[in-house]
Design brief:
Elements (H helix, E strand, L loop, with lengths): L2 H13 L8 E6 L4 E6 L17 E2 L3 H15 L5 E3 L9 H11 L8 E2 L7 E2 L6 H4 L8
Parallel strand pairs: 2-5
Antiparallel strand pairs: 1-2, 1-4, 3-6
Amino acid sequence: MTRQEQINNWLTSAFNATSTGISEFFYFDRRDNEFFSILAMDYFIVDDQFRIDDSNEISYSKKTLKLLSDRMKRIDQKDPNIISIPLADSNLQLQNQIDSFINLNAININTATIWETEDASITVNVGQDKAAVNRPWWKFW
């Protein structure tokens, strides 16, 4: 499968993500020229300053955690280099929407990549730690 086909397949999944079961958010990072997604559960591994919460057990590599935290912070700060992938409009042909998104955002799919992380497990500490109790769990919605 070519890079263009991989990106098109990834964008098809991103555009088709439904709002009924939000569990993954899709973006393009201009700085890194990379498509990426963040799982809703990933927000439980950071504090309100997007620092990694060491009270949780996380199997992501340190490199992945650093980039994940950086991207979450940049999304929160509305960094213009991070573009949210829109949901598909059911009244329009999907491939046209994907092509339009790529063109309007001047994304070169010949050089862009897809961020692939290792499979991970996360064990969230839900004890009575004051910081954990006051964490805005809903913030990612």
